[in-house]
Specification:
Oligomer: single chain
Distance between the termini: 47 Å
Order of helices and strands: HHEHHEEHEEHEEHEEEH
Shape: elongated
CATH class of the largest domain: Alpha Beta
Radius of gyration: 20 Å
Helix content: 40-55%
Number of domains: 2
CATH superfamily of the largest domain: GAF domain
Number of helices: 8
Largest sheet: 5 strands, antiparallel
Strand content: 15-25%
Structural class: alpha+beta
CATH architecture of the largest domain: 2-Layer Sandwich
Length: 261
């Protein structure tokens, strides 16, 4: 028989386990983090956090970026969509390489047939990060940015445009656009096989996004570069477009090999 004390202990019987699980929760929520960031988030000394990270790394629950100072969680405590896990596994190496090549934040968004949700983000080292979107954020369908252009072109379609007031960022301002203009942007994204923001947002960020597919060619996600732009900038350079397309091609091959359908 289980006693009341056994069911609800007043004293934490395994504080190290609780702390390890807390580290995993933070990495799942916030994405890749440095030792300092984890220490600040938990309030624990860096030496204590480092010991936990090394133990979790030995158990393959956490990994450190090659040559970097940041840690990534490889498991999640909360129930997780199996597709998301496969998508992240297929994309992470290419995302790391892309981030190093372009020097900007790289994002992975999961498409669940209705919404886009940010599930992974990799930031460049030794660069002040101004991209504020957090893991778990769902994109607004009214914002016809690079991400939603791709989602509509390959997944959602354009019927949603008739029941909403669409808008885009232009010079850090939200500008309403007509249904015809929104459809034009979506059609252009499909023709080019990438979407691009019409201008930089209030944080000075401009995104470029490409589609990722299941083996049956339905949209599973969007790979994006979030570039911090100079105010005079109006478009992304062709090298960046080639780089993200090359990364997307590798990820799509990985998804095919993973038989995600």
């Amino acid at each position: 028989m289980i006693t009341e004390t056994e069911k609800s202990p007043k004293v934490d019987p395994a504080p190290a386990l609780r702390r390890g699980l807390r580290i995993i929760q933070l990495l799942s929520k916030d994405g890749m983090s440095t030792l300092g960031q984890l220490s600040e988030a938990t309030g624990w000394p860096k030496s204590s956090v480092l010991r936990l990270l090394r133990s979790l790394e030995m158990m393959q629950f956490v990994e450190r970026e090659d040559g970097g100072r940041r840690y990534r969680g490889l498991v999640q405590i909360m129930p997780v969509n199996g597709e998301v896990a496969v998508l992240k596994q297929a994309a992470v190496t290419s995302m790391q390489k892309l981030c190093r090549t372009v020097g900007h934040t790289v994002e992975l968004h999961y498409f669940n047939r209705q919404h886009l949700e940010l599930v992974e983000r990799i930031e460049p080292l030794d660069t002040e990060v101004t991209v504020r979107m957090r893991i778990g954020y769902q994109r607004e369908q009214q914002e016809i940015d690079a991400l939603m252009q791709v989602a509509c072109a390959y997944g959602l379609g354009t019927d949603i445009l008739k029941s909403q007031q669409s808008w885009v960022w232009t010079d850090a301002k939200q500008i309403e656009i007509t249904v015809d203009r929104a459809e034009q942007l979506i059609n252009l994204a499909k023709a080019n096989e990438y979407g691009i923001d019409c201008g930089y947002n209030y944080g000075g960020v401009m995104r470029l996004g490409i589609p990722l597919f299941r083996t049956n060619r339905t949209l599973i996600g969007v790979l994006a570069i979030a570039q911090v732009c100079h105010p005079t900038m109006r478009q992304l350079d062709q090298a960046m477009i080639r780089n993200i397309k090359n990364a997307g091609s590798i990820i799509n091959t990985n998804l095919i090999n993973g038989h995600l359908s």
